[in-house]
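Justification of resources, computational component.

The compute hours requested in this renewal are based largely on the per-chain cost of generating structure records like the one below. Each record pairs the submitted sequence with a full structure-token output. That output is archived, and it is also reused by downstream analysis tasks.
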Amino acid sequence: MAVCSAIRFGLIRSRSTVRFQNKTVRSSHTCLSAGDIREKLRACAGGSIDLEKRESGIAVITINNPARMNALSGSMMLELEERVHDLETWSEGKAVIVQGAAGTFCSGSDLNAVRAIANPQDGMKMCEFMQKTLTRLLRLPLISVALVEGKALGGGAELTTACDFRLMTSGGVIQFVHKHMGLVPGWGGAARLVRIVGSQNSLKLLAGVKKVDPDFGKQIGLVDEVLHCSSGERNTLDQAEQWLSQYIKGPEAVIQAVKRVVLSGRELPSDEALTAERNVFGTVWGGPANLEALALRTKHK
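The structure output for this chain reads:
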């Protein structure tokens, strides 16, 4: 199983990371074994999750269900997992941008899908499925960006927290509306939110259902950059790629190694993170990029 996870996730072959990989694989395996919930999700069709891989090493995932403000139908939840799996094995990749179609990000779960799995048992299985899919998205060896144009509501707000960075257009809004539905986040959004903005701000956003506009988002650290788009300017995706370019200059092996050491530092105990970092260092030491830099006598500027 450790070998399979190394192939799928491209994580480091160390004792500590194998342990971390196994956690990931067990999560994935649990999802795959939930055939009953998959069939119910598949029956709730509508929309699509589109994936484009570019020669620049940037992939673009588009949540495409404009008739329902890009709400995730059951079939879209399954497609999202498939797209994430595709990116787990993309050796030429450096980054992924997650965006919504037609000027809005995502309004959470499609109510038709919610009604179809309204009983507690199915609700828990759907929750587990999405929790693990978004965890795999966050653990990709790619730098990930949520491009929030328009509204990111409920599960859509949770999706933004499964990316490394969040960019927002001037009219964008992130809002955890779960309390209005008599719920709390279930796709891992609350746990990730606390890590991003702290417990006090998380309470404000979840208990107060506070709208996060670009200014407030930057103030609390949920939004990394605000994109100001107007007629005559490049579109939001072009601006997002331009912003992202500062972090993905260089060979993909090095960019992926950077993401791996950050990932291990974030999720592993300190001693295991140090071991993982040492092993990632070993994968790039003496590699093509390192040897080229030494040959050119590259110096810090």
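The radius of gyration is 19 Å. The longest strand covers residues 58-64.
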